[in-house]
Design brief:
Elements lengths: L2 H13 L10 H13 L3 H13 L6 H10 L3 H13 L3 H5 L2 H9 L3 H14 L1
């Protein structure tokens, strides 16, 4: 765990709140959520998941989806899939390095993406 993530982790344990610096650091928030999951801090996982859901964009959605898939976070996974198809940004997302990483680390996620696209097209 990186020192800055450990510091945020301790801050949460001591104050039951996240440091203000995490509002601007999406990757740090992802790492903090992974640490919270690893050490069983469910409240921190939920807070991190909520913040990540509200901060999804074209550049972060693929890495966030990989995180959600690897840590079985269904709310976050559904938020990512919904973002990809409801905002018609899948083409832009597919061009990111994060998407390439997603396909290499979680190839089965393509079935979920295609299912989501198909369900939107039926409407």
């Amino acid at each position: 765990m990186e020192p800055s993530i450990f510091s945020s982790f301790l801050h949460f344990i001591n104050t039951d709140s996240l440091p203000d610096t995490l509002d601007q650091d999406y990757m740090a928030l992802q790492h903090l959520m992974v640490a919270a999951d690893r050490y069983g801090l469910d409240r921190l996982v939920l807070i991190g998941e909520d913040r990540l859901c509200r901060s999804i964009d074209v550049q972060t959605v693929a890495t966030t989806l990989a995180l959600a898939e690897q840590h079985q976070r269904e709310l976050l996974k559904n938020a990512c899939l919904g973002f990809m198809v409801s905002r018609d940004v899948l083409g832009a997302v597919a061009k990111t390095d994060g998407f390439k990483h997603l396909l290499m680390t979680c190839p089965s996620i393509m079935a979920d993406i295609l299912d989501k696209v198909a369900s939107v097209m039926k409407q």
